[in-house]
Fold this protein.
Amino acid sequence: MRITAVTCVKNEGPFLLEWIAFHRVIGVTDFLFYSNDCTDGTDRMLDALAERGVLQHLPNPAEGRNYQMEALKHAATQEVVTGADWVWVADVDEFLNIHVGDHTIPALIAACGDPQAISVTFQFFANDGVDAFTDRPVIEQFNRSHNPDIWCGESAIEVKSLVRKDFPLHYYGAHRPFFRAKLPPRNMPRWTDAAGRAVPHKFLVAANPRRIRKFPAAGARQFATLNHYALRSLDSYLVKNDRGDVNRENRAFDDTYWRERNDPAHEDTSIRRYLPALETEIARLRSDPVIDALHLECVSLHLARRDALLQQPAYQKMRAQLKAASTLPPQEEALLRELDLWEGAA
């Protein structure tokens, strides 16, 4: 089975080898990376891996700011995608945690009955007080999340999707594929959640803009969960913010994104079952001295950027604000305040 993962990156150097190794462990056979504006060695690492046949690496073709959608449009024309049996579109902070069989993508596909698409529900993993970046697997370091069936007061949670080669594709979205408008009912794709159940009809046909990339999470993770490590360490989160916005002087910092993903109410260590195989695969990649040196350089540049940011008062203030922030999502805090229960919860 040929399975291609497609992803877009900017300054993800320290995390590349883990993500690639993990996806090789779960059955991905091919990778298509798009990168743009990298300053931490990401692009040079990807070029070196491409030279060794590990992946394909292209510059992001976007001419405006819509980097991901332009890349996905381009990806749909590439043989590594058109020739694949399945396509998986995901980011480098997302790990597909499969709970059935031998814990690989083929096992997930079989458990779901070999549909034409499978949408897997997110579970957002908290920072949980980890301040310092360390060069260890992300899936080992972060083990707490929100209640898996509720996120920010909502029962519907976002998904990412595996897509089979015979899906009646119009275009790939970041979270789900889209099929042609006015597709006859008899040609509707067989599309399941990660419990093998048919996805809700309104999600299937993209009828509700609010539910175009999410559906109720309860019961949807029987065979797989999509672990999302959007925060990682506080060090790495500061660098991530810099990547997206280089000018914060005299501006208030909005910590909503952090607080929405930093709820540590639930412990889930199930993904650690992959660690032995993951560490073996990382070691295999790093046995190449060029790849090992490039990885260490990415780590060094990541930490150097953190140090440079923390010389700036705006980032010093941001760091202090994040460390002091409530671990309750803003929506839950608002509800507690409305019910006059906040004082006891704070």
Notes: The radius of gyration is 20 Å. Residues 5 and 258 are 27 Å apart (CA to CA).
